[in-house]
Task: inverse folding
């Protein structure tokens, strides 16, 4: 869930309602992860169940699932039967199975970046404990603050 929330924050655009997943995507993902799996470990709730559990409309759940699939977080498999109705074969879906990808396979680069940031933060902390270390240069500190997302990036063309 934390990786999904990071992806949501990372893709949020100013003036927009949420990022790639939006609030409903996060809510449906939480519902699928924590309420969806049965006692046998199979995650196959119906859209009606997901809508009731998450408190969203059925159409909102469908859109949220589409956004989750587009982000590479999960996929779903339509399961059904071919039924003969008056001599005509028709596909009749009876359930969907939801499959989840590991966060390393998502379309976000937050996991690889967070390890790099943590490594640099640890180096800075270790230098501070040494006693005789020199202070960090102002330019390097500003670059690190921008890299960690603590300050907004400078606009292009600004000095």
Result:
């Amino acid at each position: 869930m934390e990786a999904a929330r990071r992806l949501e924050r990372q893709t949020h655009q100013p003036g927009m309602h949420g990022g790639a997943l939006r609030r409903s995507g996060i809510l449906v993902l939480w519902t699928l992860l924590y309420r969806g799996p049965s006692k046998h470990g199979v995650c196959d709730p119906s859209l009606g169940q997901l809508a009731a559990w998450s408190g969203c409309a059925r159409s909102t759940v469908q859109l949220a699932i589409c956004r989750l699939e587009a982000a590479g977080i999960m996929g779903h498999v339509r399961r059904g039967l071919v039924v003969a109705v008056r001599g005509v074969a028709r596909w009749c879906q009876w359930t969907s199975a939801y499959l989840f990808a590991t966060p390393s396979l998502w379309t976000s680069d937050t996991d690889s970046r967070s390890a790099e940031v943590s490594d640099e933060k640890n180096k800075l902390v270790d230098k501070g404990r040494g006693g005789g270390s020199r202070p960090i240069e102002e330019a390097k500190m500003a670059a690190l603050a921008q890299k960690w997302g603590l300050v907004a990036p400078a606009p292009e063309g600004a000095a």
